[in-house]
Amino acid sequence: MKQAQTIHSVLRQHWGFDSFRPMQEQIIRSVMEGRDTLALMPTGGGKSLTYQVPAMAQEGICIVITPLIALMKDQVDNLRRREISAIAIHSGMTPRQIDIALDNCVYGDVKFLYIAPERLATEVFRLRVQKMKVSLLAVDEAHCISQWGYDFRPSYLRIAEVRRLIPDTPILALTASATKVVEEDIIDKLSLADPAILRSSFTRDNLSYSVRAVDDKNDQLMRIIGNVAGSGIVYVRTREGAEKIASWLREQGESADYYHGGLPNAERSLRQEDWTQGRTRIMVATNAFGMGIDKADVRFVVHYTMCDSLESYYQEAGRAGRDGKRSYAVLLTSPDDEQRVVKRFESEFPPLSEIKSIYEKVCNYVGVAIGDGLQSSFLFNIHDFATREHIFTGKIQSALKILQQNGYLTLTEEMENPARIMFCVSRDDLYKIRVERNDLDHFLRTILRMYNGVFTEFRAIDENEIASVSGYTLERVKELFKRLWQMRIIRYVPSNRSPILFFDEERLPVDDIYIAPETYRLRKEMIHERFSKMLSYASNQEHCRSRILAEYFGDSEAGDCGICDICLAKRKRQKAESFSGDFKAEIIKLLSERNLSAREIVAEFRCDPQPLLDTLKQMHEEGSIRTDSAGVIHKIKP
Ligand code: ADP
Ligand code: MG
Predict the structure, then answer these.
(1) What is the model's pLDDT at position 417?
(2) Which atom of ligand 1 lies at the shortest distance from residue 17's CA?
(3) Is residue 493 a contact partner of residue 419, using CB atoms and an 8 Å limit?
């Protein structure tokens, strides 16, 4: 009883929420009883609170393992805004920064340590973690531990070792996507002891799924936009596609914009904000549009092109109707979709020899020599690399995934990176420059003071802060850095948004790169299986769509939703069937009230028109009704 009060008051005090979402409370209780727990909950279901609330209700620090740096930062910012102390450790940080952060976890009063899985293996972490008072080990995206899952990350396998260092700490494994096999694998690989398995529902009662097989997708898209009020998202596969469809919609007089990963950062936020605030009605986007969408009243999500998997489909479609009101998720398909998907798969899945060659090119691109690079990270712009090497982005991604699964590299998703500089002149030379170049002296002195002297390693700097300390505008600061760079006084990497490539191992000669044939074959099969499921969802004509999705996520209790296109068609058919005998009586009843056209009569019944039309024909022949010259049907009085 005491505990219930505690967790509710924690929820209210720190988050301002009045009640828990379905399953949250059960998960929290299970964790607080000290039990290992596996929780399966859809994206957006509220998994974070299931470890954050117990951590706040108990003493000690909660360690959260999560692979996505952007989400990690998001969470940390979020907690800090609530005045909860939280720290992140990821591959974008220098060893020194990591060292300081870990010390704070041991000696400070840090409540949450978010850590990227590839950091668990390091000696610094292992030594420090044993000194921490860990209340809970939360494993987010736990499916990453399974080879049978799509996102397998070998570094997740280290978690069990970490657990052995802090044996009395319960584990909470969280995921939104686990088939039965993956579920069992999570339990096995994390060595969960008699775990509680808690699963919340994957159905969305207010979301109506449908698939439209059409020849003209634009025409169908306009219909949906015309029929459904409110704002929506149109997902397309490519950046060009997003631009093209958005401009086409604008030509049709719709309020539409586009969003994709090729847009500068500021531009992206601006567009997202306009859409969130309702100034733009429709966002045409690639899958880069997703993280951090916080808009409850999205009325429709149309997929103009097929997704690679039902996971992505479910997640993207699920952005509609967060406010609980009726919303629509429509997938547009055309007859050649299947062929196209298969072809894409063939062209994007690289043969073994090509994986090795991509490995070599990537190493050269980031400037890592053979024997170097161990445990270091580099900015890696995959699009730039793709353009330079003339390789499909999709193929590079596949190759990197396979290299990742074999433990060579880890590619993290995009993140904000601070600007970095490093001096390439000696202290003495720098002094000379300052004397000679009066115009640069103030700026150089500011940097030296703020960052404590000349440094010969890359170091993250905060351009905004430099601006306010030096009194220059941000633009001027950037210009000055560029100038110093051109003068070869510093090396300068402007702040940017880019994925990070982390070398789990040093660079090896290509001949030493070993790709286990099983992992290769497995991955090929898995990808194949994933899009086959997507294709069969699209071509399905008999099973409730909501139920197919729920079952895909292992939720076998879901019933028919009653609102997807399949359920609606079924209901129509049943209505027509159950009606067959009574059509005549019903028509007479309708016509006693007023005269109607055949079309209006059909509309009244909302069923398959054929049996109705047959009945009308029969009634004409019997002479119980007649149609006038305007096409209106009259009842003939007996
Ligand atoms: P997941 O990790 O399962 O995708 P999150 O933990 O990111 O989901 O939560 C999604 C959103 O739901 C967040 O904005 C969070 O604040 C909100 N949320 C979670 N639990 C509750 C609750 N009990 N009441 C209100 N909002 C909640
Ligand atoms: Mg989450």
Answers:
(1) 67
(2) 24
(3) yes
Residue 22, Cα to own-chain centre: how many angstroms? Answer: 22
Count helices and strands in the chain by DSSP H and E runs: 26, 24
Please give the Cα distance from 198 to 179 (Å, whole number): 14
Tell me the average pLDDT across 612-630. Answer: 88
pTM: 0.73
Query: Please, what are the domains in the chain?
Result: 2-199 (3.40.50.300), 207-335 (3.40.50.300), 344-416+500-524 (1.10.10.10), 419-494 (1.10.10), 579-635 (1.10.10)
Q: With a 6 A CB cut-off, is 319 part of the ligand 1 pocket?
A: no
E-strand stretches of 352-414: 377-379, 409-411
CB atoms within 10 A of CB 269: 12
- Nearby residues of 447 by Cβ (< 8 Å), 6 or more positions away: 421, 461, 466
Count the neighbouring beta carbons within 10 Å of the beta carbon of residue 438. 8
Out of 9, 12, 21, 24, mutate this one to test ligand 1's pocket (max ligand atoms within 8 Å of CB): namely 21
Tell which residue, 154, 207, 205, 144, has the closest CA to residue 176.
Answer: 144
Q: How many CB atoms within 10 Å of residue 262? A: 14
**CA gyration radius, the chain:** 30
Residue 257 bridge partners (DSSP): 283
CA distances from 254 to 192, 311, 400 (A): 53, 30, 40
- Ligand 1 near 41 CB (within 6 A): yes
Mean pLDDT across the chain: 89
SS3 635: strand
Contact between residue 228 and residue 282 where contact means Cβ atoms under 8 Å apart: no
pLDDT, tens digit (0-9, with 9 covering 90-100), for 568-615:
999 888 877 766 567 888 888 888 888 888 888 887 776 777 878 888
CB 112, CB 54: distance < 8 Å: no
CB 202 near ligand 1, within 6 Å: no
> Which DSSP string corresponds to 173-233?
EEES---HHHHHHHHHHTT-SS-EEEE-----TTEEEEEEE-S-HHHHHHHHHHHS-SEEE
Q: Is the pLDDT of residue 536 over 90?
A: yes
- Choice between 20 and 498, residue whose per-residue pLDDT is larger: 20
- 78-98 pLDDT, tens digit per residue, is 999 999 999 999 877 778 888
- Convert the pLDDT of each residue in 357-394 to its tens digit: 999 999 999 999 999 888 788 888 888 899 999 998 88
- 413's tokens: 């998703």
Q: Is the CB of 78 under 6 A from ligand 1?
A: no
Distance CA 321, CA 301 (A): 9
Round to whole Å and give the CA distance between 276 and 9: 31
Note whether 451 and 459 are within 8 A (CB). yes
pLDDT band at 149 (very low <50, low <70, confident <90, very high): confident
Alpha carbon of 35 to ligand 2 centroid (Å): 21
Q: What is the pLDDT of residues 472-527, one digit of tens each?
A: 888 899 899 989 988 889 888 777 667 788 888 899 999 999 988 887 888 888 88
